Every structure is written in C-alpha cells, then in structure tokens.
C-alpha cells in the first residue's frame, strides 16, 4: 500500500511564507517527505517587501530597515548573499539627523537650543515606556528624566485607568509635567510662535515620527504596557543596498520551479472541527482542509500555513466573508479585532532640475560651495489644528508629516512618510495634487532657508509667515512622484500591526495558535494542525518587523517538523 505524502500549502509568498517554505523544503528535500506548495494571490513574491526604482535609484515601497544588526537573521542573510553593497544608488538613508534643520511653519528656523531639550525629553519618555530607563540606569541627568517620566506615568494612569493607559496620554502628560517644572523663557523673532507653542509643536513632530514607527494613526490608541515587551536587536539600523527583495529571492532560490504559484488568490478555507464531519458531508478527500480559489479551482491539504496580513483577517471577520468555514473560534477572532493594524505609506518625489532634480546632479558628488548643497534633512513643526495662523496653502494631509529628506546625501529624490488617515488620503490623490500640495508646504517652510539661494540669515528664529511674494518666488518644484498604496491593496489592507489599547501581547500569542488546538502526538478525533498562522502579527516581541515575520515562519515550519518527528514520519 502506497502512503500518500502529507500536503502542506502555504498561503502567501512574503517573508513568513517563504521562510516556512525554505525551512520545510531544505529540512526534508532529501527524504521527499512532504508535498509542498506556496500559493500567492498577487503577481509577485515578497508581500509587504517590494523593491522598486525611481529616478534611477533603488527604493523600497514597503519594508525598508534592518532594525538592529546584532543577532538579526535578516542582516545575516544580507551579509551571506553580499546584499549590503551596491554600485547602483539606493535608499541608504545616510543623511545625518544630527545635521537636520528644524523649521516651524512660516519659515522660522529653530535653533538646537530650542529643539534639543524637547527631543531629549521625548526620547527619554519613550525609553521609560520601553523599560530602558529605570532606577538602575538613571544616573546623573537621566535621574531627573526618570522621576519626571514616573510621575507622568502615574498621573496619566490615574486619569485613564490602569488597564487603559496609552502611549499618547503618557507622552502628553510627560510634556505637561516638563513644562510645569521649567521656567518659560520666551523666544523672539518667531512671529506667532511662543516658546510653549514651539515646544508643543516640536513634541508633536516626534509624536508623528512615532506614529510612523508603530503604524498607529493616533498614539492614544497605542497600548502603554505592551511597549516594554517589544524587543529590538542591538546595533545600528540599516537599509539593504541591493534591495530587501534580495532577501526574499534568496529564500525562494532553493525551491524548485513551480512550487510557488502566483495569481492564486484563496477565497475560502474549509477545515474540520471533527474529522467525521467531512465524511458525512460527502468530502471525497482524506485531507482535512480544502482551499477554494478565485478562479473556482479547489485544492486539498493536510496542513495550511496562513500568512495573510492582519488587515486581511480583520476584513474577513468584519465583513463575515466566510473566508474560514467553520468560522474561526472566538479566541482567534477577538484577538484579531483587538489588535491594531495601521496604514503607513511612503511618498518619493523627484526634484525638478531647478532645485537639483537633474540626472543625479548631486549624486554622491561634491557640489560647488557657492551653490546649493542639496536638499536638507528637513524636520517640520506645524501649527496645531486650533491655530488661526496656519498657512492656508498647506493641505491637511501634509500636517502630520514630520520629515522630508533625500534618500541619500545630496540625492534629487526626496522621501516623506504618511500614516493613518493621511496615508489613505494620499492613495486617492492624483500626482498633480500631490506635487502642488508638497510644493506649497515645502516652500512655506524653506522660504527663508539657506538652502534657497539668497538667504544668509543666521538668526535664532527667523522668517515671515506673510511673505507670500517671496514664497512664490522660491517655490520648490517636483517633476514626478511615486507612492505606495498599502491601505487599499486588497491583498494587504494596511502595513503592519501594533498592540492597541484594550489588547495585549496575549492576543499576539493567540494569533499564533494553530487550529484545531490539540496539536499533540496523541490520537485525536480531529486531524491536528490543519491551519497554522504565521506573519509579523503573530510574534509577541517582534511584531511589525520583517524579522518577526521570519521568526514566525520558522516557528510554524518547526511545529510541523516536530509533529511528524513525533508521529514517526520524519526522523533526523
């Protein structure tokens, strides 16, 4: 009697799916124990990793960073395949944030003596929330920040309730506590900007950066307690010279042709709570899981590893689409509902030749010292929504964007990040609308900048919000733009996960639980490990990252390998 090999189908050819496929194939290929298949709904591999080109430069439309090189499996692979160096210009982000210029709306340059204390405050508050700033480490100046943060956490917690404290409320309480403890020395030459308003604006700029890191549209929805569980690798954060896609291609390179099937979108997953139910309903296959595809075809499997995004899972349970039959258990659906999943989009802009947009006019070149030095690393401080002095030509979708900067020193390609409501709005805007909106915004901020020719001011805070004529004269122009559209892409419906208020790390663990729950080696009325789950939103301490997705793919592959080791089919 010929025993059929177990069939394992992986849904999704992103980091998690291809890591799982790579592990399962390389661990058992010599013994030919499994029938393995990866089905991908899109026309490419990579998932939320999508390396592209713009203006002759290599860019990332999705995942961008290796978050810490110490111990990162992504960094290890990048080193092994020599992807950290490239002759082609890439999005290397080598602009030094220490040399950033910070400008308040209206073109008011802010001196480091105004910006740095608020930056230090924000960073120390975040380190406190992450458990990095504690009594043992807080010595000298840090001791005062520790006391301030501890007080802020206590006050904010009392106001919101111990179980509902958000990062947003903690941070704002920290700023309020700081401002009460400091004497407010007014600044001159900043028009309608008082020191208090400037401090709040600078703090808001850092909050907007934090929104980008976490994908939370509003930091009031970001859980405070979970922040200390999140883990990062030590060492610098870097980008991949030959593109993030080189990591994906490396993982896929060991798989035989045809194992990955593109354009195969799964619409329904049938699984069995009870093995006998499938027989009673006329199921002709001994395999417990049936996948239905958008083209009407059907595939049976013993095990399915689901790596679709949390956004897709949220949509499935919200719309009651019947993606899973029978429906997922409440422990799974409640976790899916409680966890956060945000939209983060990147906007690339090519400067027109007048402003350094010629064919790599500044590309790794030294520029004439009497001319422009290239576009600066710009940090933008906007007026609050309640302010009556807001520049009318700045569109609302630009007002929570913190930075605009070249993708490498002196590049003519600029990058800005958008989160939440603004990110979704960006997806529906025409290129002309984006160019006009960004040009108006940048011109408002840089109307008195030394980056613009003719400006030589070195004042502490300089500018004139009413200088319309000069603003038009120095308007920054862009020739083309390119944007990501993660929020409306039906295969993703967002970017990455976060732990929302009301959720916890336990929900991330629940996301990783296989179905049916009994996955032991003991005989069961139900076929074990029918549906397994992988992806960044299933990792308790590394969610939102590519390495979190990588670890989750390894976890589920090893779960299946261990299962077959238990039942005696797989033995090393």
TrEMBL record:
Residues 15-561 form the Amine oxidase domain. SUPFAM superfamilies: FAD-linked reductases, C-terminal domain, FAD/NAD(P)-binding domain. The keyword Glycoprotein does not apply. It comes from Vigna radiata var. radiata. Its main location: cytoplasm. One of its GO terms (molecular function) is polyamine oxidase activity. Its cofactor is FAD. It comes from the Eukaryota. The lineage of its organism: Eukaryota, Viridiplantae, Streptophyta, Embryophyta, Tracheophyta. PANTHER family: FLAVIN MONOAMINE OXIDASE, PEROXISOMAL N(1)-ACETYL-SPERMINE_SPERMIDINE OXIDASE. One of its GO terms (cellular component) is cytoplasm. Signal peptide: none annotated. Belongs to the flavin monoamine oxidase family. It is found in: Cytoplasm. Keywords: Cytoplasm, FAD, Flavoprotein, Oxidoreductase. This is Probable polyamine oxidase 5. The keyword rRNA-binding does not apply.
């Amino acid at each position: 009697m010929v025993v059929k090999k177990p069939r394992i189908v992986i849904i999704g050819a992103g980091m998690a799916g291809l890591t799982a496929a790579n592990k399962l194939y390389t661990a058992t290929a010599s013994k030919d124990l499994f029938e393995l298949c990866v089905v991908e709904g899109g026309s490419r591999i990579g998932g939320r990793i999508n390396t592209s080109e713009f203006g002759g430069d290599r860019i990332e439309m999705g995942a961008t960073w290796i978050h810490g090189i110490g111990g990162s499996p992504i960094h290890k692979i990048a080193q092994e395949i020599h992807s950290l160096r490239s002759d082609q210009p890439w999005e290397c982000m080598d602009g030094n944030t220490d040399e950033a210029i910070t400008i308040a709306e209206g073109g008011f340059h802010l001196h480091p003596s105004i910006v740095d204390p608020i930056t230090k405050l924000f960073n120390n508050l975040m380190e406190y929330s992450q458990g990095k700033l504690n009594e043992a480490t807080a010595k000298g100046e840090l001791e005062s920040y520790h006391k301030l943060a501890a007080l802020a956490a206590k006050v904010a917690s009392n106001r919101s309730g111990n179980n509902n404290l958000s990062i947003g409320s903690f941070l704002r309480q920290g700023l309020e506590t700081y401002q009460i403890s400091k004497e407010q020395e007014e600044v001159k030459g900043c028009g309608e900007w008082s020191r208090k308003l400037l401090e709040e604006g600078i703090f808001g700029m850092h909050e907007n950066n934090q929104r980008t890191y976490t994908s939370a549209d509003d930091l009031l929805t970001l859980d405070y307690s979970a922040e200390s569980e999140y883990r990062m690798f030590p060492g610098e954060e870097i980008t991949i010279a030959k593109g993030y896609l080189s990591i994906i291609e490396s993982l896929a390179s060991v798989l035989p042709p045809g194992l990955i099937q593109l354009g195969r979108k799964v619409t329904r997953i049938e699984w069995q709570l009870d093995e006998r139910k499938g027989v009673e309903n006329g199921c002709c296959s001994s395999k417990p899981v049936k996948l239905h595809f958008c083209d009407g075809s059907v595939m049976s499997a013993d095990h399915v590893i689901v790596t679709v995004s949390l956004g897709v899972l949220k949509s499935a349970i919200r719309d009651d689409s019947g993606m899973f039959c029978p429906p997922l258990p409440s422990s799974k659906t409640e976790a899916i509902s409680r966890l956060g999943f945000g939209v983060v989009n990147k906007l690339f802009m090519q400067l027109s030749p007048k402003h350094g947009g010629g064919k790599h006019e500044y590309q790794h070149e030294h520029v004439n010292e009497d001319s422009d030095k290239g576009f600066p690393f710009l940090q933008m401080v906007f007026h609050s929504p309640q302010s009556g002095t807001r520049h009318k030509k700045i569109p609302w979708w630009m007002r929570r964007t913190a930075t605009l900067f070249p993708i490498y020193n002196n590049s003519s390609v600029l990058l800005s990040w958008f989160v939440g409501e603004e990110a979704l709005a960006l997806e529906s805007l025409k290129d002309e609308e984006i160019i006009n909106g960004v040009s108006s915004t940048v011109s408002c901020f840089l109307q008195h900048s030394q980056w613009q020719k003719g400006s030589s001011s070195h004042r502490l805070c300089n500018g004139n919000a009413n200088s319309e004529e000069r603003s038009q004269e120095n308007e920054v122009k862009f020739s083309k733009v390119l944007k990501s559209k993660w929020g409306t892409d039906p295969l993703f419906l967002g970017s990455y996960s976060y732990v929302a208020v009301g959720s916890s790390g336990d929900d991330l663990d629940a996301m990783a639980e296989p179905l049916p729950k009994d996955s032991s080696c003991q005989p069961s009325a139900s076929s074990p490990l029918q549906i397994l789950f992988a992806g960044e939103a299933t990792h308790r301490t590394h969610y939102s990252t590519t390495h979190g997705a990588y670890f989750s793919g390894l976890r589920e592959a090893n779960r299946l390998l261990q299962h077959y080791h238990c039942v005696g089919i797989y033995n090393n």
